[in-house]
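The instructor's notes for this session suggest beginning with a concrete chain rather than abstract definitions. Hand out the sequence below and ask the class to guess, before any prediction is shown, which regions might be ordered.
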Amino acid sequence: MAVIKEIQSYGEKALPILEEYVWGKGNREAVVALRLIGQVGGANLVKTLGPVVERHPSPQLRIRALRWLSRGPKKEILPIIRKAADSDPDESVRRVAKEILALD
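After discussion, reveal the predicted structure:
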């Protein structure tokens, strides 16, 4: 998709703008922004997605962020995923986090 390739060409410079969409009011926009953040990746992936996993009000978006975060460096992501597995208020988020941990 041309839009994804264009955003990827911006690299990590695109992350602050995409992050605004994640925390905005539109769930559809947030889903697309999470996908793009995951595809851009980079050194700031954990810094960008960690707060989403920990604090976003939508369990569905926390799950999506967990899945993208699981592609990051194990040393950095494991504490975030373990915390979600142990203490996320939503059972489905805890379950997905535990599934991700089981794959490791």
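Then share the key points. The radius of gyration is 13 Å. Helices lie at 2-10, 15-22, 27-40, 45-55, 59-69, 74-87, 91-103.
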